[in-house]
């Protein structure tokens, strides 16, 4: 079967949130046609203008076409939902826009279609709306026709693309146009376009850089960057009409480095998809990672080339590799390429494995074959499969042809198998041995991996492909040793003797890798606390922002689990480091100070009172510093700060500021206050999209965690329903449960055994496994 094009006519009643539709689908089929359709009313179906028998059942429209070449026409009606997927209402300030989110299988909630990524087709859209409204879609507007008190926007035809990339937005938009080819248009709801210039100018640079790297021009005439006021995900790569959560798109010079860098990464990620995912698309969701891993990897690569002072590969390790290493070390993991049988399974694999691990493996293979060979292979792959669909093996073959190295052999193993190895390094006399085993923080099935091993012995670089369990090398007079250079390999390294590596000249990435590995070994019981503390004490006074941020995260987590057991080392570290970074004025320095100060304020009320004195100058502060000061003010003032912070939250114009204040509110020690703030999601005072973030930020203090747990038990179904069809609830619970459940492990486990949340099963099980591991540290 083949779908050549969809010609779609829609007439909206914006106030009633309904629409009538008529579509012409040009098909070539040798058997009866099945269209996907969910919550749509089908009024009429014709072939060549003649009515034809059809049946609507099980979210399908089964049409008696037989063998047919020509036009199928469907009349249908739909409703705009109050959800976060399909076609939905996104509210703001007493009004709303209509927006769409179709990945992975929600286009069928908008129009009857063959909602499958491999059935690419051209789309031509005509949309009738009230005169005062604007319409945005993938292509630019061909013309606008007046129809009484309404107008019809007629859009140019798209190139062949998958249904999940179709976009429609209706409402009152402000737009900022960036002079460029293609035209770049930032769109926001009224009053927010002032933060559109920074992302628009970034997009201009990113598109030019991608065109140069891929050797393929961006082929559409324009790209919209659309800030949607209520949005479940960070962003969505609809071809030519990319949608974003407001905090993932809107920024200005006062936003602070953390926000600006985050906006850059998300914009670069979605623009990478315009080639890798939109121009060339996976055949089926088994290869979702092909889209997401590559866009993730490329976003850091492109930003690093344009903003080298941002140190993006360090950010990559913290943002992508670290989370993937953790989630891939438990029994409930999955291969990068995972078999997907049903649409319900798709949403649960948008996770750290599909994004972070896949991107980390791409970084590892680029390091193995060389940057130019990697680039050449990508160009050949995109050229060969443009406007079509491909599989993972197609990419490996392309990289293999470009490099002459056994990419298919290596990558097939890493992509088709779950988990990753730990390499144990031991020096005995004049010999060094490398022994691998699969790493797990709980018991996992052992495996042997093909590891592109890189190491330095006494400052001399060496590399080999370790395919066996063990190998020994000669090494006379060992003075220094480090393994996994630049932390480019997706594996951990355990040294039987720490002294040679602590005597080595470690770069920023390698220091981060040492700290990250040994915290994982502590959780897994591979080392005792004294070995972990030895690494921490060695790195305690580091000037490396990567290792400082990593240790701050680890020690804050340990403090939260058991302040009596881990309080001294955590306070020692934060009291030593925070004043050092307070003197820095560069973006990375200010951002690092903000993280340290935010954590120290929660542990040390004296420091919180001192830092909160800056709250009187809040509006003049750097965006990153604002966050730390607001948290300090909340912690030190407690209930006395509530009215002030709530007023600021409600009056804040931009979500960027709302999120800072929300984080501060959730940092209070008052359990009653925190659960009342969480409940704002049910009154409309908090955006639905922010409840998940709120749960993550409310867990530092044990007394608050207890109240949050009681709140979750009461409201879990309502919160899960908010994210129905997205998979997000399960992914966030995998991060929430490990801390939330400390001290109540049996109760939490039994609760989730009795209360199954559809679409969140994998994430909840991951959380329970992580809880089992980290509970041993308490």
What does this entry look like structurally?
The radius of gyration is 27 Å and the shape is globular. The protein is built from 27 helices and 29 strands. With 778 residues, it is an alpha+beta fold. The relative contact order is 0.06. The model has no long low-confidence stretch (mean pLDDT 95). The protein folds into five domains: 1-170, tricorn interacting facor f3 domain (Immunoglobulin-like, Sandwich); 280-416, Orthogonal Bundle (Neutral Protease, domain 2), CATH 1.10.390.10; 420-528, Immunoglobulin-like (Sandwich), CATH 2.60.40; 540-668; 670-778. β25 and β26 (460-466) form a beta hairpin.
Tally the helices: 27
User: What strand line-up does the widest sheet have?
Assistant: 5-4-8-2-1-11-14-13
Oligomer: single chain
Helix content: 40-55%
Shape: globular
Chain-wise SSE layout:
Blueprint: E1 2-13, E2 18-29, E3 33-36, E4 41-47, E5 50-51, E6 54-57, E7 60-63, E8 68-79, E9 86-92, E10 95-101, E11 122-130, E12 134-137, E13 141-147, E14 150-155, E15 168-171, E16 174-178, E17 183-188, H1 197-214, E18 222-228, E19 235-236, E20 241-245, H2 246-249, H3 257-273, E21 280-282, H4 288-306, H5 312-327, H6 343-346, H7 353-369, H8 371-384, E22 388-390, H9 392-403, H10 407-416, E23 421-428, E24 431-438, E25 451-457, E26 460-466, E27 470-474, E28 481-483, E29 492-495, H11 499-502, H12 508-524, H13 529-539, H14 545-561, H15 563-582, H16 587-603, H17 605-612, H18 623-637, H19 642-651, H20 655-665, H21 671-678, H22 680-683, H23 691-697, H24 702-722, H25 728-740, H26 745-754, H27 761-774
Parallel strand pairs: 1-11, 17-18, 18-20, 21-22, 23-29
Antiparallel strand pairs: 1-2, 2-8, 3-7, 4-5, 4-8, 6-7, 9-10, 11-14, 12-15, 13-14, 16-17, 19-20, 23-24, 24-27, 25-26, 25-28
Helix pairs in contact: 1-3, 3-4, 4-5, 4-7, 5-7, 5-12, 7-8, 7-10, 8-9, 9-10, 12-13, 12-14, 14-15, 14-16, 15-16, 16-17, 16-18, 17-18, 18-20, 19-20, 21-24, 23-25, 24-25, 25-27, 26-27
């Amino acid at each position: 079967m083949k779908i050549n094009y969809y010609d779609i006519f829609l007439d909206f009643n914006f106030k009633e949130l309904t629409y009538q539709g008529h579509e012409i689908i040009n098909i070539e089929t040798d058997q009866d046609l099945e269209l996907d359709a969910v919550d749509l009313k089908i009024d009429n179906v014709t072939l060549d203008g003649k009515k034809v028998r059809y049946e609507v059942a099980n979210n399908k429209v089964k049409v008696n076409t037989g063998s047919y070449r020509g036009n199928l026409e469907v009349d249908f009606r739909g409703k705009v939902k109050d959800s976060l997927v399909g076609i939905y209402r996104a509210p703001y300030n007493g009004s709303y826009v209509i927006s769409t989110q179709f990945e992975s299988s929600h286009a069928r909630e908008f129009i009857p279609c063959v909602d499958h990524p491999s059935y690419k087709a051209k789309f031509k859209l005509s949309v009738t709306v009230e005169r005062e409204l604007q319409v945005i879609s993938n292509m630019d507007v061909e013309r606008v026709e007046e129809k009484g008190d309404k107008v019809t926007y007629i859009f140019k035809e798209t190139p062949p693309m998958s249904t999940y990339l179709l976009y429609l937005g209706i409402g009152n938009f402000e737009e900022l146009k960036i002079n460029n080819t293609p035209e770049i248009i930032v769109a926001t709801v009224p009053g927010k376009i002032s933060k559109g210039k920074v992302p628009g100018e970034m997009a201009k640079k990113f598109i030019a850089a991608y065109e140069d790297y891929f050797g393929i021009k961006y082929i559409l005439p324009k790209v919209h960057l659309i800030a949607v006021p209520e949005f479940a995900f960070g962003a969505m790569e609809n071809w030519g009409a990319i949608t974003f959560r407001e905090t993932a798109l809107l920024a200005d010079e006062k936003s602070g480095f953390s926000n600006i860098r985050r906006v850059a990464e998300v914009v670069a990620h979605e623009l990478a998809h315009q080639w890798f995912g939109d121009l060339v698309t996976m055949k089926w969701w088994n290869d979702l990672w092909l889209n997401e891993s590559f866009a993730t990897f490329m976003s850091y690569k492109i930003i690093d080339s344009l903003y080298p002072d941002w140190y993006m590969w360090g950010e990559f390790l913290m943002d992508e590799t670290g989370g993937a290493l953790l989630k891939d070390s438990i029994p409930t993991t999955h291969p990068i390429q995972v078999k997907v049988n049903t649409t319900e399974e798709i949403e649960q694999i948008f996770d750290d494995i599909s994004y972070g691990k896949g991107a980390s493996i791409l970084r590892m293979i680029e390091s193995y074959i060389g940057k130019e060979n990697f680039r050449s292979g990508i160009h050949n792959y995109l050229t060969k499969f443009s406007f079509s669909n491909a599989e993972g093996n197609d990419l490996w073959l392309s990289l293999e042809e470009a490099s002459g190295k056994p990419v298919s052999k290596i990558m097939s193993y890493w992509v088709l198998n779950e988990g990753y190895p730990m390499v144990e390094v031991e020096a005995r006399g004049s010999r060094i041995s490398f022994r691998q085993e699969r790493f797990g923080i709980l018991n996992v099935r052992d495996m042997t991996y093909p590891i592109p091993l890189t190491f330095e012995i006494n400052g001399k670089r060496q590399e080999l492909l370790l395919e066996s369990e063990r190998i020994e090398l000669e090494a006379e007079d060992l003075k220094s040793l480090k393994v996994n250079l630049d932390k480019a390999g997706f594996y951990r390294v355990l040294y039987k003797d720490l002294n040679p590596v602590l005597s080595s000249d470690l770069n920023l990435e390698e220091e981060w890798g040492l700290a990250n590995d040994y915290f994982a070994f502590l959780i897994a019981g591979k080392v005792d606390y004294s070995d972990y503390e030895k690494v921490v004490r060695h790195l305690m006074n580091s000037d490396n922002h990567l290792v400082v941020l990593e240790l701050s995260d680890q020690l804050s987590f340990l403090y939260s689990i058991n302040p009596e057991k881990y309080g001294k080392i955590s306070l020692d570290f934060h009291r030593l480091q925070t004043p050092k970074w307070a003197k820095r004025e560069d973006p990375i320095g200010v951002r690092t100070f903000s993280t340290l100060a935010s954590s120290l304020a929660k542990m040390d009320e004296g420091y919180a009172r001192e830092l909160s004195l800056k709250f009187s100058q809040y509006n003049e502060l750097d965006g990153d510093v604002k966050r730390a000061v607001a948290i300090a003010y909340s912690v030190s003032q407690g209930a006395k700060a509530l009215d002030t912070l709530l007023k600021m939250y409600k009056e804040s114009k931009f979500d960027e500021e709302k999120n800072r204040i929300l984080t501060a509110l959730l940092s209070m020690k008052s359990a009653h206050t925190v659960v009342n703030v969480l409940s704002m999601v049910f009154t409309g005072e908090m955006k639905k999209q922010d409840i998940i973030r709120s749960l993550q930020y409310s867990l530092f203090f044990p007394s608050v965690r207890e109240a949050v747990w009681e709140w979750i038990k009461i409201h879990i179904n309502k919160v899960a329903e908010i994210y129905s069809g997205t998979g997000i609830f399960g992914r966030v619970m995998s991060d929430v449960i490990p801390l939330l459940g400390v001290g109540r492990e049996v109760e939490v486990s039994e609760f989730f055994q009795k209360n199954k949340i559809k679409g969140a099963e994998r994430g909840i099980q991951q959380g329970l496994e992580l809880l089992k591991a980290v509970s041993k540290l308490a």
